[in-house]
Design goal:
- The chain has one domain: Hypothetical protein af1432, CATH 1.10.3210.10.
- It has ten helices and two strands.
- A two-stranded antiparallel sheet has the order 1-2.
Length: about 180
């Protein structure tokens, strides 16, 4: 899996923002596990969300830019809240959750086609097993499960709420881009 580390670090420079080095390494390990399990050598080539991409006629939309948008949006929310509110939250958990929220997509899709994991489990349930395999805390599994309305899990922590909101905005931006570009079908 070491061969994946360089690609992961290049794809997600926000990893370096995680202060706890053990936590950072384990987040990197989760991505390496997902890449190895699915024989993915080019993380940058993984599509964002094939069913929505087809409906919006956006075949070239990719997962890495989406995850980076979510991570940067989540960090902006954290900074804003810290300036104006007396909140207690783990910035490392927000960054890790944002970076990992869609790790299950590597299992759900083979290129633009759904896999058995994608068909039977859907988004984002399989990500919990990746979180567990990497030895990450349950708080991250919660973020993965609660980051989308496609599950019945509502965010129970401020960190999970931040990631969910950042993901919703990043996905809305992709949809808005399709509308602006006239790509809707």
């Amino acid at each position: 899996m070491d061969q994946h580390y360089e690609a992961i670090e290049q794809a997600f420079p926000e990893l370096e923002s995680i202060e706890n080095s053990d936590f950072r390494d384990t987040v990197r390990e989760a991505w390496a596990i997902a890449m190895a399990d699915n024989a993915i050598t080019e993380i940058e080539a993984v599509p964002w969300f094939p069913p929505v991409q087809r409906s919006l006629n956006l075949p070239d939309e990719r997962l890495v830019p989406h995850i980076r948008d979510v991570t940067q949006g989540a960090l902006a929310l954290v900074e804003s809240l810290k300036k104006r509110r007396s909140v207690t939250l783990s910035v490392d958990t927000v960054i890790a959750g944002a970076l990992l929220h869609d790790v299950s997509k590597l299992y759900e899709f083979d290129g633009m086609e759904a896999t058995t994991v994608g068909t039977l489990l859907g988004h984002p349930y399989y990500g919990v097993s990746v979180i567990a395999a990497a030895g990450l805390p349950v708080e991250l599994a919660h973020i993965v499960l609660s980051h989308t309305h496609r599950t019945n899990i509502e965010p129970a922590t401020l960190e999970a709420t931040i990631v969910r909101q950042a993901d919703a905005v990043a996905a809305a931006a992709i949809r808005a881009q399709a509308d602006t570009d006239g790509n809707t079908t």
